[in-house]
Write a structure and sequence with these properties.
This protein is 36% helix and 22% strand. The chain is an alpha+beta fold.
């Protein structure tokens, strides 16, 4: 298992190269969440967009960006995409590789505009966090979850979907599943009790 610092170095390396294609690229979801919570991640998901229209052109573009790193790019598309990502709007393809012992997934979105909404559209609040320029950026929903102990869904998702189900199981000892209203009410109740 690699350390958080090593994983951040890999993320920085990947982002630095990927900025040649997409200056708006970010690491989002599981890795920055786990780092924020003080543990290494299983892999690093890097979200980006590209003007290339085919997978072969994208692979060539990536090979030029990552020149000299001897990376073998493997693609997932259509039926081969991990079920955890199948409900993600705007997902084009996932390119996987390993860099310095860390698994990296480049997640191509269909437009830069869609890229800007990736974090806000994550299925569960506990995943709404990103990393860029050496810093972890938690969203309001993520912080509400940490403070309340309640994780909640984005619109269009339910707890039976593959990714929310995985999060519910992964965090069953840390967070309860609920709604944003329940999370906010719990924060208010805790604040009132502290004031007594």
């Amino acid at each position: 298992m690699t350390t958080i610092e090593h994983q951040k170095q890999v993320a920085d390396k990947v982002l630095e190269q990927l900025y040649l294609i997409c200056p708006e690229a970010i690491v989002a979801g599981g890795a920055p969440r786990d780092w924020y919570l003080g543990k290494p991640a299983n892999d690093i998901d890097v979200y980006f967009s590209s003007t290339t229209t085919t997978a072969s052109k994208l692979i060539k573009q990536l090979e030029k960006c990552f020149d000299g790193m001897q990376i073998k790019f493997e693609q997932q598309m259509g039926k081969n995409i991990n079920p955890l990502y199948q409900t993600m709007e705007g997902l084009v393809r996932i390119i996987e590789f390993v860099l310095d012992g860390v698994k990296v997934q480049l997640i191509q979105m269909d437009t830069t505009k869609r890229l800007y909404s990736v974090v806000g559209n994550m299925s569960v609040s506990v995943c709404k966090v990103w990393y860029t320029n050496g810093k972890i950026a938690p969203t309001r929903d993520f912080l509400i979850t940490l403070k309340s102990g309640v994780m909640f869904l984005s619109p269009k998702y339910n707890w039976n979907d593959p990714h929310p189900t995985k999060m519910a199981e992964m965090f069953k000892d840390k967070f309860t599943c609920g709604t944003q209203d329940i999370a906010k009410e719990r924060i208010i109740t805790m604040s009132l009790r502290e004031g007594e």
